[in-house]
UniProtKB/TrEMBL annotation:
GO terms for biological process: lipid A biosynthetic process. Its EC number is 2.3.1.191. The gene is lpxD. The keyword Acyltransferase applies. Residues 32-98 form the UDP-3-O-[3-hydroxymyristoyl] glucosamine N-acyltransferase non-repeat region domain. One of its GO terms (cellular component) is membrane. Pathway: Bacterial outer membrane biogenesis; LPS lipid A biosynthesis. It comes from Pseudoalteromonas denitrificans DSM 6059. This is UDP-3-O-acylglucosamine N-acyltransferase. Signal peptide: none annotated. Homotrimer. Pfam families: Hexapep, Hexapep_2, LpxD. The active site is at H248 (proton acceptor). Coiled coil: none annotated.
Length: 353
């Protein structure tokens, strides 16, 4: 188990360390060791917590944490040991990295791994059981390829990539440095390309590939299709959650985040630093500019040209209320027609007067 003193954690985070107002706690703070992070509600002695949402401020009165990370504005509400800084949530992220106990996806080269003689695998890379590395593939320094993974012909992985179990990287796909691909994700499968000839679907081979920048994370069971002619591009520092679908020739700009179960149809371009919430649908062949936020279940059917927050999902309501609303919705056309008739009648009456 890891142990960190409060003084070390304060220095690591660049935080101000303020000792407890209780003398006995303050005397122990210099030697107090922290072993893990926990929520305010569940934290025990020897653990550190954080307050990033004011709705949990009441829990400061009852938390058993040995220290809490707070903003200057919230520090006055807590009398125990505290680390004070501008953004407790970012501090939490950095501490989670420091205390991370997640194992490697692979360690060493397993005897059951199948590695083509013409693949180039760094001496510092690790390949798990039953993984397959095809001809021409390049695996960079310190990469971890988990059990059951498939790395296709001429695929290229930069340094320090971590590929979890059973992920599939198709032929010609390129990953930058420090990418994380979670279990069962598929990178480079065929885009949905077909031509119809008198009722018969003619498959269009997808001749492009997928190119990921550096520090990209792709969630479990997410699929990123290869381009039809050019490449599908996911730029650096993009994070994509589980069970998302990225269609062929999509381009996602740097720093964009996409939550679970959202989908982007083919040939659309998403700008930089966008935030796409869960269950969003983005139409094909459109553009979304930089710094757009889509709230949950938003349906984007045309290009967005101005930064801002956009919504279209319908919040839940009681079933009987929803049924009434849907009944009214079905009659909107008739209502609109009657309103126009009344407007015409009103206008004619004004003229007569």
């Amino acid at each position: 188990m890891q142990h960190f003193t409060l003084a070390y954690l304060a220095e690591y985070l660049g935080a101000e360390l303020v000792f407890s107002e209780h003398e006995e706690d303050s005397n122990n703070a210099n030697v107090l060791e922290i072993t893990r992070i926990a929520t305010l509600e569940s934290a025990q002695s020897g653990q550190i917590s954080f307050l990033a949402n004011k709705k949990y401020r009441k829990q400061l009165e009852t938390t058993q944490a040995s220290a809490v990370i707070l903003t200057q504005a919230d520090a006055k509400y807590y009398t125990g040991n505290k680390l004070v800084l501008a953004d407790p949530y970012v501090a939490y992220a950095k501490l989670a990295q420091l205390m991370d106990t997640t194992p490697k996806s692979a360690s060493g080269i397993h005897s059951s791994a199948v590695i083509h003689a013409d693949a180039i695998v760094s001496e510092s890379a690790s390949i798990g059981a039953n993984a397959v590395i095809e001809v021409g593939a390049i695996i960079g320094d310190d990469c971890q390829i988990g059990p059951g993974c498939f790395i296709g012909r001429n695929a290229k992985l930069g340094s320090n990539c971590k590929i979890w179990a059973n992920a599939t990287i198709y032929h010609e796909v390129v990953l930058g440095d420090n990418c994380i691909i979670h279990a069962n994700a598929v990178i480079g499968s065929d885009g949905f390309g077909f031509a119809n000839e008198q009722g018969k679907w003619i498959k269009i081979p997808q001749l492009g590939s997928v190119v990921l920048g550096s520090n990209v994370e792709i969630g479990a069971s997410t699929t990123v299709d290869r381009g039809a002619l050019g490449d599908t591009e996911i730029h650096s520092n993009v994070i994509i959650d589980n069970q998302c679908q990225i269609a062929h020739n999509v381009v996602i700009g740097q720093g964009t985040a996409m939550a679970a179960c959202s989908v982007i149809a083919g040939s659309s371009k998403i700008g930089q630093y966008c935030q796409i919430a869960g269950l969003c649908g983005i139409n094909g062949h459109i553009e979304v500019c930089d710094k757009v936020i889509l709230t949950g279940m938003a349906m984007v059917i045309s290009s967005i040209t101005e930064p801002g927050v956009y919504s279209s999902g319908i919040p839940h309501s009681k079933n009987r209320d929803w049924r009434k609303q849907m009944t009214h919705l079905r009659h909107i056309g008739d209502m609109n027609k009657k309103i126009k008739e009344l407007e015409k009648l009103s206008a004619s009456l004004v003229k007569v007067e």
